[in-house]
Write a structure and sequence with these properties.
- By secondary structure, the chain is mainly alpha-helical.
- It has a domain of 198 residues.
- 76% of the residues lie in helices and 0% in strands.
- The chain contains 14 helices and no strands.
- α3 packs antiparallel against α4, α5 crosses α7 and α7 packs parallel to α10.
Length: 308
């Protein structure tokens, strides 16, 4: 009876814990500051569960974020980086930016909420946008806005920042390799059936996302360097405001790209949507310092279609 009693007590405690977690609001789940990567994992998993239960479209970003964070964590454990402590602390601070933005949004504290996250969270309620588009909006906010702030805070000078540059860009290889897996997550959440990754639309979409993410990370590093170089807080605040406004501008262009991003796998981009798609994509590339004329984008896509 003792063994059975102990099992019943454990089950009762677990049910009580589960009910307590299920009963928590997003404000509860985002109120506790992260001190360790374990805090990040536990909190994001709880936030993701809350999003899924409430059919909140923001869950896709959290799923992808957890997958990317685990990949970076594995690189650290495998000894692939030189500045292990710096990268771990940066990952925690990076997650903190999302936690703080979510908390401010749920508290309706819009005066302190970064503009890109306000735009992103508001758009999550709009069912007109596909999940791929929603994910890219969140990536924009996190990479172009949060990442420069986090990286610049980790260094007191440009010389110190330069110590971390190799590890920072070493992560690009991981991002290149993980993008197909991220598309699988998107398609699964969108209830799309899997398809050949060699279809023209899939090749272009993967290339677009890869190019955007890698170049956004490059822009983020350049912004972090500029923030680190400022002597006055006034200059720093002014530049962060510029970063926020530029990120929201990019978000508006991403919305124009929605018909392309939201194509079901294996479906060609309709002819009547190509001009507007390449125009929006060309503007996005230009906004992050990549030269890609509309005619070039159309030619690349047409060549892939002809080869298919």
């Amino acid at each position: 009876m003792t063994g059975l009693f102990q099992k019943l007590v454990i089950i009762s405690l677990w049910i009580g814990f589960s009910n307590a977690v299920l009963g928590q609001s997003l404000i509860d789940l985002s109120s506790q500051k992260y001190e360790t990567l374990q805090d990040v994992y536990q909190s994001f998993q709880s936030i993701d569960s809350h999003y899924v239960r409430h059919h909140d479209r923001r869950h896709l970003f959290v799923k992808v974020y957890l997958r990317i964070t685990r990949s970076i964590d594995n690189l650290i454990l495998e000894g692939e980086v030189h500045e292990k402590q710096w990268l771990e602390e940066a990952m925690i601070s990076f997650a903190e930016e999302y936690r703080k933005a979510l908390l401010k949004f749920e508290l309706k504290n819009n005066s302190l909420l970064p503009l890109p996250w306000k735009f992103d969270f508001d758009q999550a309620k709009n069912l007109n946008w596909g999940l791929s588009t929603q994910l890219l909006l969140s990536l924009n906010s996190h990479i172009l806005h949060d990442l420069p702030i986090v990286v610049s805070r980790s260094s007191s000078s440009l010389s110190e920042l330069s110590r971390y540059e190799e590890d920072y860009f070493k992560l690009n290889k991981m991002f290149k390799n993980i993008i197909p897996e991220l598309f699988n997550i998107v398609y699964k959440e969108s209830h799309f059936r899997s398809t050949s990754f060699f279809h023209p639309s899939e090749i272009i979409k993967r290339e677009v996302v890869k190019r955007l993410v890698l170049n956004m990370r490059k822009v983020a590093w350049e912004r972090a360097s500029k923030l680190t170089s400022f002597k006055s807080n006034q200059d720093r605040v002014r530049f962060i405001k510029e970063i926020s406004e530029h990120t929201v501008y990019l978000d508006t262009l991403v919305l124009e790209l929605d018909p392309f991003l939201s194509l079901p796998p294996g479906v060609l981009l309709p002819q009547n949507l190509r001009e507007s798609t390449w125009r929006a994509l060309s503007k996005i590339y230009e906004a992050i310092g990549v030269h890609a004329p509309e005619a070039e984008l159309e030619r690349d896509y047409a060549n892939l279609v002809n080869q298919f």
